[in-house]
Fold these 2 entries.
Entry 1:
Amino acid sequence: RSAVELAQEAIDRIETLEPKLHSFLAVMGEQALAQAKAVDEKIAAGEEIGPLTGIPIAIKDNMCTPGVPTTCASKILQNFIPPYESTVSQKLKDAGAVIVGKTNLDEFAMGSSTESSAYQLTANPWDLSRVPGGSSGGSAAAVAGSECPVSLGSDTGGSIRLPASFCGIVGLKPTYGLVSRYGLVAYASSLDQIGPFGRTVEDAAIVLEAIAGYDPKDSTSLNVKIPHYADLLKPNLKSKGRLRIGIITETFGTGLDPEVDEAVKKAISHLQDLGAEIQTISCPNFRYGLPAYYIIAPSEASANLARYDGVKYGFRAEQGDNLLSMYEKTRAQGFGPEVKRRIMIGTYALSAGYYDAYYLKAQKVRTLIKQDFEKAFASVDILVSPTAPTTAFKAGEKTKDPISMYLSDLMTIPVNLAGLPGLSIPCGFDRQGLPIGLQLIGDVLREDVLLQVAHAYE
Ligand code: GLN
């Protein structure tokens, strides 16, 4: 089929399903068809066809795409049309992919359920009364609901892996620095990474290859050679040496849903049947990951969000009598409650007199967690854990209790603090028919091993 036909099919599916799912903040119908037409013309002119040629893709609405608003699901960026393009969306277009729309998220990617979006609630396609996970919930629901085959999310503390787990699809957070953050609206810059969602590991591998690579516009971008991830996939784990997998002991036990526990253990024994050698590994500082993250991420966010003052972007409150009151009113009206909570925590943690007690301490914990992982990877090739302690919860269930919401990220956050790659792959269902996710964690830049193990497993 032609790129135009594929784009039209995706647009039709989106039109049919959106009244139930609400995954998209903007559907780029006309632009997508025009882009698809250009792709078809290139094919007709004999240009080389890559694996993403004509493939419809959705992008989380915190990545800048010119000609269409980038809102971060915040009122403060309402109608903000970026004058420049994110490196990832440019790379996707260069690879021939067709961008069909911008997906819903928690405001500024702060949340675990996509419920903090200022605009709409996204439903989990497996049970519409439940959340898709967050913060990249729109991108995950769009793929799980077959609105489009692949999408992009961002992961600061689990925001690709958690929704992948809740929606029963594959989600990958790459090594920090593998994918350019240029044009990604910053939340916590030392943790943010962009990554793909797909229904299969191969789909995720193809998208990763297209978006990865050195970018001089991102000072934290890694200058490394990008492997052909999809070509490295094979159906088994047989290799010269046995693949060693470590089970992180601390991610099992209290707080873990017994059905998740059972499914993940079954998945691990399946990996053993496939030829892997299984060991248990202790990461004793893992449990301090969540509290350290909730100091570091809000601290960086409080600095990153200082730029939304009503002057440079989108929304400006009316009736400010002077500059200061215009700033105050704009920020009071433009930010939602979760974002305000983060700004206040971050400003407090960074303030003189508290900096050593909170921010510096959290950075020390971050180093200890990194060391736990370094020790672990001296004896295993990959680590496994559940992606999340539970399956998808009901909409509204955790909105009144931020701590219980934060606990959803218990197992994903240490991976961001250490800058490592992490992947979530479906590993069964609970008794209510809700998907369960298995998390695979790799050493720095070992996306190839992660994808190989995940592919052999699926
Ligand atoms: N739920 C975490 C938070 O609210 C992670 C978000 C993310 O990865 N973007 O900060």
Entry 2:
Amino acid sequence: RVKQLPDGFVWGGATAAYQVEGATKVDGKGKTMWDDYLAAQGRFSPDPASDFYHRYPEDIELAKLYGLNAVRVSIAWSRIFPDGAGEPNTAGVAYYHRLFADCIANGVTPYVSLHHFDTPKRLFDDGDWLNRATIDAFVRYADFCFGEFTEVQNWFTINELISLAFSQYIQGNFPPSHHFDVTSGIQAQHNELLAHARVVNLFKEKGYAGRIGLIHVLQPVYAYPETPANQHAADLEDAFMNRFLLDGTFKGEYTDATMALIDELLDANDAHLTIEPGDMEIIKAASTQNDYFGMNYYQPSFVTAYAGESTNSFNGTGEKGTSAFKFKGVGQHVKKPGVDQTDWDWNIYPEGMYDMLKRVATEYPNSKTIYITENGLGYKDEYQGVGQLINDDKRIDFIDRHVEALLQARVEGVDVQGYFVWSLQDQFSWANGYNKRYGLFYVNFDTQAREIKKSTLWFRELGRTIGG
Ligand code: BGP
């Protein structure tokens, strides 16, 4: 059965600056929230990652060769403003001009995020998104980029607002590693959304050319087993993981029904959210002005009600079965029989992508056009030697089933216009290091040589069906 991709379909690979560039200390780059944290942890280094800072011509060439027409990259804020603010660093600015020019020359359209989990260290030390000074600095940085990188036509403000807030303050696997600090977790979501909204409003007020939006990872939450109590648990987790930000982004308000769930969750954890006067007007103004929506999708959770104390363990090694998550007054994660999981305990469930596409299109029409901006399988690919094809049938099956879900949603009227596989090439994974590979291209991290996987060839074949 050969699928047919639609006319003009965007068929891309995704990256993030800190996960691919390496070169963390060159050309005047400032530190991010990660540098000292990773050094202290001593598990793995973000250098050289995939050495994209130097090898981007090779990777963009490969992208072109294997039929990709787009690539997602992010600008490292700390290359442009090493300290988060002040005077721009000309070497950093020049690097991104070279990268974008190379993409465009190869017919690989750049989709560019301004923030992908890499707050400059000084701003992080001062409270990151919990400090409103970070929002002001972000707006200035964004304004600079819009004025400077006029060759870019497709912008995203922030990647995965929830993952950052959740990993930093609930799950504790991103710096500053708080566990179940629910007040910070909800406040960071609100403040990031406010930052996004201010940037969108500025982009439109100043009449910059091109399109702007943001990226949410959507993680459907299903009750298992299906009982009323478990459904309520699922609704609570969904409110925290998806609905609060979707409401804010595309309705310009946190609806009463959403806030009833959020308040219940906050009360159960003695937590609170502060919304300052004027915030909701800014958020409201932005809600109709997004040009498109980037949806990342990896997995759902299956949830049972839970009343005990919060506790979690994060599987950052790929030892299957080592993760656990129990959120006081909300729910605990369970396995659903029949649903496969990866070595990192991520549920493999393409129906979740379909469900979320339908939900966004139905409940949040201001999302307009949707792109799947990340989807992929973390896998321990086995190196076969120089020039030898890597067998990743599991990844092909994963992508195939997710593209199928996307096309089904499209047939049913959802305006989804593209798919970016996570990731373009193997890269550095924030809390997992280098054995969790996602790439369309294999990277030998000893030599930085690129190799082809079976999925690379399969992806090219499917790309050939675009509009044909
Ligand atoms: C998303 C991020 C990416 C990427 C991906 C895979 O949340 O936007 O940066 O890392 O997930 O996650 P992980 O590397 O933890 O497997």
